[in-house]
Amino acid sequence: MLIGVRFLLNVLWFIFGGGFFLAIGYGFAALICFALVVTIPFGVAAGRLALYSLWPFGRTVVSDPGIGVGSGLGNILWMVLFGWWIALGHLLAGIAQCVTIIGIPFGIANFKLVPVAFWPLGRTVVDLD
């Protein structure tokens, strides 16, 4: 039963909640980062965000315990250049979606995207059991 609800919420998120457009935006950013060879780690993070924003219900983001100093420095650079405004966008979209009862699950999905959009390196998307 729970799997069916997650599937339904993911389909509704994909169509009405902005999942399709978020995935396209993050995917496009990932391609740009891959083209600029120096920014490949940011491309991996943007690709992770694209996949997570495409299908967020039934999944969560956890910290990877094996991250090093490079990921921490990359996260600081990401936060200064991109992360704060991406996270702010997800926060504002979540608040706007929570205004209606129907939009509350979509708002919660946007709130789930805030931490990973703010600090993406050294994180892994895992399925909930």
UniProtKB/TrEMBL annotation:
Taxon lineage: Bacteria, Bacillati, Actinomycetota, Actinomycetes, Micromonosporales
Highest rank taxon of the organism: Bacteria
Record field: transmembrane: 7-28, 34-55, 67-86, 92-113
Pfam families: YccF
Domain spans labelled Inner membrane component: 8-59, 73-123
Protein name: Inner membrane component domain-containing protein
Keywords recorded for this protein, A-Z: Membrane, Transmembrane, Transmembrane helix
Stretches of the chain forming a coiled coil according to its record: none
Transmembrane helix among keywords: yes
NCBIfam families: PRK11770.1-2
